[in-house]
Amino acid sequence: MMSVAGVSISWAVLAPIVALSAGGLLIMLVDLVSRSASKTVLYSIGIVSCVASFLALVPLYGHTETTLAGAFASDRFSWAFDVLLLLTLAITLVLSSLRKAEDGGSPGSYAALLVFCTIGGMVMAGANNLIIIFLGIEQLSLSLYVLAGTGFPREASQEAALKYVLLGSLASGFLIFGSALLYGSAGGVGLAALHSAAVSGGTLFIAGFALFLVGLAFKLALAPFHTWVPDVYEGSPLAVTGYMAVAVKVAAFAVLARIAYEVFGQDSFALVPLWSVAILSMLVGNLGAIRQRNLKRLLGYSSIAQAGYMVVALAGVQQSGLNTLLFYLFAYALTSLGAFGVMALLGDGTDAYADLDAYKGLHFRRPWPAAAMALFFFSLAGIPATAGFYGKLLLLQQGFLAGPWGIALAVTLVAGTLVSFYVYGKVVWDMYSYVEGEAAAPSGNAFAPWVAVAAGAVGTIVFGILPQTFTALHL
Amino acid sequence: MLIDTVIFLPLLTALVLLLIPRAATSVQKGVALAGALLTFAFSLAFLSLGPNVAADQTIPWISGPWVAAYHVRVDALRLFFVLLTTLVSVACIWAAFSYAHAQRLRGYLCLLLAFETTLLGLFTAADLLLFYLYWDLMLIPVFLLLTGFADHPGARQAAWSYLIYNGAGGLALLLGIVALVSQSHTFELGTLALRLTGPAEAWIFIAFALAFLIKTPAFPFHSWMPPTYTSAPPPVVAMVSGVQSKAGLFAMLAFALPLFPHAAHAFALPLLVLAVASVVYGAIAAMGEQDMKTLVAFSSLSHLGLVWLAFFAFDITSVSAGILMLVSHGLIAAALFLLLGFIEERVGTRDLSRFGGLAEKAPRLGVMMLIAAMAALGLPGLSGFAGEFLILIGSWQTQPVFTSIALVAVVLACVYMLKLLQGTMHGPVRVPDERTVSEMRPREAWLLAPLLAGIIFLGVWPGWFNDRTPSGTGANTIVGAVLAEPGQR
Prior knowledge:
The complex is a heterodimer.
Chain A: E1 2-4, E2 7-9, H1 11-33, H2 39-57, E3 65-67, E4 72-74, H3 76-96, H4 107-126, H5 130-148, H6 155-186, H7 191-200, H8 203-220, H9 229-235, H10 238-264, H11 272-289, H12 295-311, H13 319-347, H14 362-365, H15 367-381, H16 387-401, H17 403-432, H18 448-465, H19 468-473
Helix pairs in contact in A: 1-2, 1-4, 2-3, 2-4, 3-4, 3-10, 3-13, 3-18, 4-5, 4-10, 5-6, 5-10, 6-7, 6-8, 6-9, 7-10, 9-10, 9-12, 10-12, 10-13, 11-12, 11-17, 12-13, 12-17, 13-15, 13-16, 13-18, 15-17, 15-18, 16-17, 16-18
Chain B: H1 2-19, H2 25-44, E1 53-62, E2 68-75, H3 79-95, H4 105-124, H5 128-137, H6 139-148, H7 155-184, H8 189-192, H9 198-215, H10 225-231, H11 234-242, H12 247-259, H13 261-266, H14 268-287, H15 292-312, H16 316-347, H17 358-361, H18 363-377, H19 383-398, H20 400-425, H21 442-460, H22 462-466, H23 470-473, H24 477-483
Antiparallel strand pairs in B: 1-2
């Protein structure tokens, strides 16, 4: 424990972030000093710093503490989110090893940006006041804007980066303006101060929260603030899209859940605007996905719908809702990363297998990747014996525990799921359709993506059949 | 242990098949058939294990936020559904040997075996979560079989109507289950009897009933059925129609009726209307049909409508006859669809107006078709008669009006079944494209023989069957729970 300018700092609490930052800086340094450093070395440093950060997390397990004058918290909740973010980073780095020189950008800056992005997410997971929340979000977003453009030899990647940065800055504007109004109404930036403001209500608070929610909904890709998703998902490099689909959602849900629980507590009626955007997201995401013929866009729409589902976990603002949210996020992360892993595996890191036409008859050429992809899509659709199914079961229960709005959410979730049977079933249908004499699109078979695929498949099945194992982890 | 063996042996066989090279088709056939036969042999052991509960096994599964157990059992209600599944599966897997695409045979057999495991899991599940797991998982093998392993050009489209319809039913069921469990916090049937009342019970019952009506199917939720039954390969449709179509009615008896007795009695009238509508509509549609597979599909709709009538007449005779009818229909439908597959293979068409008189060329095929068709139209001495007759006797006691209407439709069964039999077998020999019609191969005859033997056995000695079902064994808990007016409880 040391003190800087009268503010005590618990380095143990910050250690995971410090470890990861050191890794990121080391990557930049090595890249700078040794121009010839191979990408393997740079990515390995990234993975090692993931492990170091995880080791720094281990002693914090089951430990509740705030530091920096209450601005940053370490608790059971942030711990689980940190683990998930580190897992996502590690898998993304593994998938990124398929990047080639002609994809553009130096591997050093690419890997460092991924690491810094994750730091932003970890800051968000522990953020206990509006300033830290904003810092985390900006750290995450700024890194991602650049990452979206790291495929710059392709125009689509430039377009994605530009769209993301323009719309993203607008959202940040909402976020900071909302924060300012919230500060004005509460007289402080801490979430505890906001809680008392929420209890007394007031126009200033409502306006501030509404603006804040708009900004956050943009990051979560909740409809109607989702318009950036399909283009950015399609244009970004494959591994970045996979990372974006998972990490941003995880970090933004950490913020949303903390606000829902700390600021609003049991008063879930105040969150009606949130329930409304969730319902809209489930519909827009699933209906929008129907016509997509590009798998990255399809998964983009799917992530909109999934974000809508996840809001249902908060519907009752009950303690069990947090467990539900965590379970669903883990299930979603494993499933999504697995699906992007299959895409990277078949396309050898390129977007060759982003086109759904490439999947026609895949089962009869490459049965195992096809089976893995089918498993991930069944999980996203919520077919039993997958983690996605059990997650949905938990979500529906939260809905039914939460009164009329919760039931409305649950019913919409089920309706959206029915539409998604078509969306996800279409991919499986393509893969298992026997196409006579079709010229087979060449498919890769590198080792690295198998890591992501295997991790995703094992997690999806084990958490699906034995959900108790997840509970046993006590995340 | 026995029960686990029976449930998972087919799946295990499927996994073993994956290890066999794609080209070694004869090995694959041997392994698949051996797996199916062994499963059947093991399941026969349930018959000797005592009258009420042959097997019951509970393993704790989930403890929070709700309780669920891996609870499987074979009792008087479930026994014959298990036997039906294992028997029909043997015939279907054997019939699949004539599948034309050697490269795809392995996947085909694997999916059929996986399908068998989901069906067996469904019929043995005594825990609501486990039941739902299999209920939805059943969709996957059939969807994939229709998508990648059927030759009929319509099959890939039919896969969609199958998936979306049954998926919708499954999701309705899921909503009902979650609504139920969010109050009870347990999936265990034994402790689930929380005796809901009022609108909650009604809504949950509607959700359950909707899923079961779609799965069976019953009018007006049947529109997925004709395309699926018509375009699916014969072994697949024999399993779907012979076994899977029993899932809804089985679940009605095993889950919905004991859980929601008030709602079941309150909604009896609309369900009886749907039942009789299915009986009549199915019969009339079958009479006008020229495609032989679609004809049998509609006859299925009609026959299973009769079982809905049997259950919701709430009479002890009709409910237990309904179980007999389900098993009997399973054998008859599987036999008929396999036979139609053999016929289509020989004449290359399903259009009754384009061929006929096959009995002259293939007398054994003619005899087997005769037995199956006569059983379907309810000839005394065959299983169809025993089921229908007892249902009508029973339901007449409580629902004379609906029973009279259904009786008319049962008579119509003679019209469409004789049309099918005469159209395919009798009259002058007509075969399109100068094809030569061969007599049944020994494999085809042997795989059908057990099904036909079952039909004759149940027809001659329904009492043997009745002694082993809930009404006969004195295990009246299920049937009793169904019959008792809620007020007297």
